[in-house]
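User: Could you check the structure of this?
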Amino acid sequence: MAVFPRYHGPPLIEQVCTVENLTNAWRRVRSNVKVTRRYRSAGIDRMTLDDFAADWPNQMALLAEELRNGSYRPLPPRWVTIPKTNGGKRAIAILTIRDRIAQRAVQQVLNPLFEPLFLDCSYGCRLSVGVPEAIERVMRYVEQGLHWVVDGDISAYFDSIDHGILLGLLRQRIDEPAILQLIGQWLAVGFFHSEVPDDETPPASPFETMLRRSGELIHEMLKTPLDSVPVERDDLDLYSPALVQPRSGLSAEMLAALSLMQPAFAIARQLVPLVQRIGVRRLALGGALAVGTVALSELIYRLQAVHSRRGTLQGGPLSPLLANIYLHPFDIAMTAHGARMVRFVDDFVVMCPDRTTAERTLVLVERQLAALRLTLNWQKTRIVDYADGIEFLGQALAPRRKQGFLEGIGDFHTAEQRLRAHIERLRKPKSSPPSEM
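Assistant: Sure, the predicted structure tokens are below.
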């Protein structure tokens, strides 16, 4: 059953590539990085925001043309790790500037198509709502007598998103190959994960990393003949026609790999003038990187069926929208069963009237997440009485204390006197301890 209605309107790719939309995307990308950190804003191509801004009209024109004619290919991200508030570390993808702009441009076009369809139980990365509104929703449920809480957390949510399910949900709403191919490429480049501390630069050059990664991919490709890889018919329109015709044998694979270098060199020649504008020192790196990374991107794009297609990048402008799209069927299923749920991306609570209902609800949650190939993080999932307090979205929630100074009062005149006395006590400064002589 479709959970999203089909969009019928002007081509989305043309809306993505308008000067206004791309310029707004560039402004958003630039404003999201503090001025003091712009020198560290580069992706794997080492181009910072200041480098891009030095000649942004020409670079934006080239990006718009690549998006229109289908020659655009994203580069793999640079990975950094940041500490979590509750311990451990989180891997964040640092995309290249042009990839961030492209994702933001697509997000700006797609968000108005999906945002009105999301349910009001979803508060994460939404327009006009956020943490305060989610907390207030929980408090309203408590006031209605729902004091038992299913406090849930999805295990490795962004790493577990199934590409086939996600693209299928997207296809329900937007049946436009150009947009679906873009999103498919961004999902595919997330396969390459090389963590680097946030305050350090990679010891190896980007081109050396690309050579090593491409070698690993080709080695894996040669071990698995493409004619033995199952290809879903519904996905054929999203990927290269090369996957439609079965191929086998070493020579065919090598020819396919070599053929990828032709568009790579063509795109590299287009990038050289742009690299020259930001300094001769980067010309050699830029040219080699363009050839290596574009060839690698083509391999990922054409051969991603060889690998497990799961996970989306944390840190990409499009990722929050994709995360909410993926969990939209979960929201529908839970609310259809009458669950009072408040969800903030992968963190959620379900408010219940008693423990028995909470236990049944937890079984329902596990079953509905399994349908999306997701699992609960049982170390962070529990059933708890709200009277014992919960922590949700970084805030400690507990029953509000009653103001006992008004208990037993039978008329408003006495209530006024008590209230004035209480306010006066609150305003009166505490006496300081006597100082030692």
